[in-house]
Specification:
342 residues, alpha/beta, six-stranded mixed beta sheet, 13 strands, 21% strand, elongated
Length: 342
């Protein structure tokens, strides 16, 4: 398990983490900031000139997951991780990859009122005799207050919030420990594939012929409603089941196939067959009744083809593009790695 302590500078993440080690038996401090420091030593300086923060490095985000998995083979856990994470797409990528490895995540937000944060930053004790470095850290901390405020709406919905404004680090740690024992804010687990998979997606449309996309909590990027076909299950039936589970919409069993796409294995993924079905048009009444399981999906949206191109990862966008052409032509298409054949 990972107990991820989120929050901006001054919220007490590190001090609370150290107190938490005494309250959670077997726990170990895991600081991904050390990975960022390591990358600064290993990567060319020019690479860091191209980004604003080491979290922008795909290598850092992947290393966070790989290192956590490696640590948990050496220690019993949980890993206590005091790390600010304000970009939702990075949260999805990291937490989704951890969930795929069956590593439970407890996401806790340590929140402090801005006036108190500013006071803590102003009176932060110098860790070195370098006044210029201390001033730079203070400026950096103040600059991150606005991004933190911007991220609060999604953070409050995603994490278990503990207000540390009037708490000591020990009191905050006690509340975190209690939330962890109660299973607060457990991230959705998705089994990591061990071989090729068969997945069925369903395209649903509104009366303007826009297609429905959903935003999963357990992986980065927008997606079509659908999921992996279970053992012994017909693919079309899987699509119907997934739409009912994800959106509360009952569809007819006879879905029309639009695309069958063979996805090539690309480590660490195994690839497999991906099917897209036409789920038909939803009227206003059915759209108003769409439901989202909060633990799995955070949003849904009807989008045009042009809008979908900006929202979907390239592989999913290419599959959607050909599915829309198949829908227009009235004939399903067979793709291999996104290229039509036959």
């Amino acid at each position: 398990m990972i107990v991820w302590l989120n929050g901006t500078f001054g919220a007490g993440k590190t001090t609370t983490a150290h107190e938490l080690l005494d309250l959670l038996p077997g726990s170990t401090l895991y600081d991904p900031e050390l990975l960022g420091s390591g990358l600064r030593l290993m990567l060319p300086a020019k690479r860091f000139e191209e980004i604003d923060d080491y979290q922008d490095l795909p290598a850092w985000r992947r290393m966070v997951v790989d290192t956590a998995a490696a640590l948990l083979t050496e220690v019993p856990g949980p890993l206590v991780t005091p790390m600010t994470l304000l970009r939702q797409e990075y949260r999805d990528e990291i937490f989704g990859a951890l969930a795929a490895r069956r590593i439970p995540v407890r996401h806790v937000l340590l929140h402090t009122e801005e006036t108190i944060l500013r006071e803590r930053i102003a009176h932060h004790e110098e860790t070195s005799g370098d006044a210029e470095t201390h001033a730079s850290i203070r400026r950096w901390s103040l600059e991150h207050l606005t991004p933190y405020a911007d991220a609060l709406p999604w953070l409050r919905g995603d994490a278990h919030v503990i207000d540390t404004t009037r708490l000591t680090p020990r009191q905050a740690a006690e509340q975190v420990a209690e939330a962890v024992r109660a299973g607060a804010c457990d991230i959705v687990q998705t089994p990591e594939p061990t071989a090729e998979t068969l997945a069925a997606g369903v395209l649903l449309f509104d009366d303007q012929d826009r297609v429905l996309l959903v935003d999963p909590t357990y992986k980065a990027g927008w997606e079509f409603p659908g999921g992996v076909v279970e053992r012994g299950e017909a693919p079309a039936q899987a699509g119907v089941r997934e739409v009912a589970e994800e959106l509360g919409i009952e569809l007819p069993r006879a879905l029309r196939l639009l695309v069958l796409d063979w996805e090539a294995p690309k480590p660490p993924g195994f690839g497999g067959l991906r099917l897209l079905y036409d789920g038909g048009t939803l009227n206003g009444d059915r759209i108003s009744k769409l439901l989202l399981p909060g633990a799995e999906l955070r949003d849904w949206r009807f989008v045009t083809e042009a809008e979908a191109e900006k929202m979907l990862p390239p592989v999913r966008w290419n599959r959607l593009r050909w599915a829309l052409r198949a829908r227009e032509g009235g004939c399903p298409l067979y793709l291999e790695a996104g290229v039509p054949l036959g």
